[in-house]
Amino acid sequence: MAVERTLSIIKPDATNRNLTGAINAMFEAGGLRIVGQKRIKMTLGQAQKFYEIHKDKGFFAELTEFMSSAPVVVQVLEGENAVSRNREIMGDTNPDNAKEGTVRKKYALNIGENSVHGSDTLENAKKEVAFFFKDEEIVG
Length: 140
Ligand code: CMP
What we know:
Order of helices and strands: EHHEHHEHHEH
Shape: globular
Helix content: 25-40%
Distance between the termini: 18 Å
Largest sheet: 4 strands, antiparallel
Strand order of the largest sheet: 2-3-1-4
Strand content: 15-25%
Bound molecules: adenosine-3',5'-cyclic-monophosphate
Number of strands: 4
């Protein structure tokens, strides 16, 4: 088992419904520690850069407009196997397929407005953490 860090984003649909604390409680109960956190409003350009990997997908415009539509909370979560652990806590991207007890089953509205983002691999986690955080903003 390895202690890892992963990038999490609490998305606009969740911040709009005042769910930041409820979702953070699920991360903490699931064994992850919030070692970096800030509430920001992304510009459209920032969202396009962050989600560049999806630029050829049909949902790219919808995704980037949504992510820059209202505040998000970007966070660094730390713990044993944090990348996969966070993905278990979040549940499937599509809330219709998410398991009971996961964040997306509980709170997601649909596949786009799905309340949280989490890095999919450790390699991407390192890039995504560096996209939003300076080293000194992460306190383990
Ligand atoms: P996220 O983990 O933030 O990574 C990419 C996002 O694209 C994903 O969560 C979904 O919110 C979004 N997404 C994936 N598929 C679709 C889709 N078919 N329509 C709208 N958004 C999607």
